[in-house]
Structures are given as C-alpha cells and as structure tokens.
Amino acid sequence: MNSLNQEVSTKLELIRQTLTETEAVGIRLRGTDWFAWATAGASNTVLLTTETGIAEVLVTLQDAWVLTDEIEAQRLVNEELPTNFKLNVNPWADVTVREAFVRNATDGGKILSDRPIPHVEKRLPPSLKEHKQVMMPSELERYRQVGRKASEAMTEVLKAAKPTWTEYQLAGAGAEALWAKGLHPALILVAGNRRLPLYRHATPTGEEIGREAMMVFCARGYGLYANLTRFVSFGKVSDQPTELHRHIREIEAQALNLCKPGTTLNAVYETLAQAYQQHGFPNAIREHHQGGTTGYLSREIIANSTTTNTLAENMAVAWNPSLPGTKIEDTFVILDHGKLENLTFDPNFRSVEVEGRLRPVVLEM
Fold first, then answer.
1. Are 317 and 259 contacting, i.e. CB atoms less than 8 angstroms apart?
2. Does 1 have pLDDT greater than 60?
3. Phi and psi angles of residue 214, each rounded to the nearest 5 degrees, phi first
4. Cα–Cα–Cα angle for 91, 92, 95, rounded to 5 degrees
5. What confidence score (pLDDT) does residue 2 get?
6. C-alpha to C-alpha distance for 100 and 31, rounded to whole angstroms
7. Average pLDDT of the chain to the nearest whole number
8. DSSP tag of 183
9. Taking the CB of residue 253, how many other CB atoms lie within 10 A of it?
10. Which residues lie across from 329 on neighbouring strands?
11. Full-prediction pTM beyond 0.90?
C-alpha cells in the first residue's frame, strides 16, 4: 500500500473511532480543509473563494465515499482521489439524489459534519479537530514542499519588483509565481510605501508601491497553507523602520520560544502582549490578531486570551506580530523535543539570526 493510501486508512480509522465514541452512524466532510485532510491532499476546489467544494466525503463504519456530481466525477478519479474511496455520483441538477443516498447509507441515523445542515446534522467533536491539526509524516513532507515553493515564489517576485509597479502588479506577479509552482494564491496582501503604516490587512490597490512594500502570502497546496510576510525596499532602509523591524523580530522570538508541546495558545498570546509592552507598544496586541495554529486553514485557531487549546508535536503555527509599517510571519512546525522547523525559510532571502533562528529582514534593492 502506498503512503497516500496508508495515510487515508489511518484517518479513516480516526473517523470511525469518532463514530463509535459519539454513537453516530456517519460523518460528512464538506469543507475544502476537511476534504483535503481526509483524502491526503486531494482538492475539491473549483471556485477558490468558497469554503466548500464540488465534492464531499461520507464515512460510515463500513464504507467511505466521495460524493460528487456528474460534471466532476471523472476528473476527480483521474487526477485527485486515492483509491480508498468509493464514488457516488448524482446528477448535477438534482441534489436530492445525493441526500437520498446519504439517508440510505446511514439508515437515517445521527450524522456529524464539519459544516452541518442546521437541525439535521451535528458538529464534529473537538477530538477529531485536534487530529486534523497534528501532521502525519507524509503530511509534513507535502507541507515542506508547499512552504519551500511559496517562499521561493516570494523571493523571486520581490527581487524582480520595481518601485513604479502598482500594488496590483506586485500582487499579480505574486499570484503568477504561485500558480506557476502549482499553489493556490488563497490570499495576497500588498502595501506600498504610503499605505504600509496605515493598514494591517492591506488589500492591493492601483497605487504605485514607491520606496518600500510589504507582501503577504497565504499559499495553498495539497490543502495545506504556507503563510509568510516579506518586505522590499528600493534603497537603504532608514533608521526608524529598521528599529521597528528589530522590535518585531524580538517580540516574535518570545512567542516562538514558547512553541513547545503542552503550551497553550493563550499563554503564547499573553507572552506577546507582555513583549509588546516591554518594547514600548502596549496597545499593539489589540491592533491586529497575532496568528495561531495553521495547516488546512490559514489559521486553524487564532490565539487570544481565552484559547486554551494545547500545542502538540507535529502541529504547525504561524505567528504574525506587527507594528505600524512592520510585520513578521513564517510557518513553523513543532518537532520532537520542541524544536521548530521553518517551512517557509528561503536561504536566498536576506536574514539575521534572532535567538538561534534565521529571521527575514527587509530586502534592499
């Protein structure tokens, strides 16, 4: 059995364990995140902006199906799906056929779902959601590919960028570079020199980027998200921005130092709040979210003061502390003994060492 089929078999066992524990008879996974998880990286995405796709997974104690319509079935079989699943195909114009199949397959019993139909299905238990966040070795290998490709695309684009480009042009070049490497540009933010200190979530505009720019990627491959932020400057960075970037690297280091199995997300959040205060920015914790766990969503859980979820080995995190005009972000996985592996590190991008880790600095062109 190849590694993908073995991975799916293990996940089907986890799903069926959940069925037994909850006394449910079926689990339906509709989201693009859960579909990719259950199928070892297959995609049910056609329209990039939707949370659900053109197929779903249905698992009972006896069987596992992918449910789709006659438009999509052959392509999924040829290009996406591992062999662990049966296929059930309904006419594209009659979704009632699919619902009738589900009722028959589950004998009308209790069904759980990631996106449940109100008053008909129940939500997934936290235990299965935790399994989704802890990467198996085969998932980590795919994640490394996604992170490497995303960071290389970022470097390529920023090294080619010109101060006369508009934010649209820079974002478009980023999207082109990601697509060329087989990744979905799930999110690209760009802020040029004027807008950079104004907005944390700077969606691109037609304005020229000017002397300095920030670009953010949430790049998706095999359903997994590589999240990273980088800066480019056309000319030497002045002293004030340099100091802000130094502050944010040191603030981030305190969060990364805590990323070990057993640490809670709210503990990391509170440490970031204290770090901002120590560096003279007591309100910054409230001016932007700080990140959290990542994987099959750009953020599986966004940390705040009440998120008591616990970090674990083989879980991925992406923190993004920020100050006006500066931000830092990469995607890390927690390895054994609490070591961190930076999945989005590119040795061809400028970096400095901060508490034993190489962290990106502004690329001066």
1. yes
2. no
3. -115, 140
4. 80
5. 81
6. 21
7. 97
8. -
9. 17
10. 229
11. yes
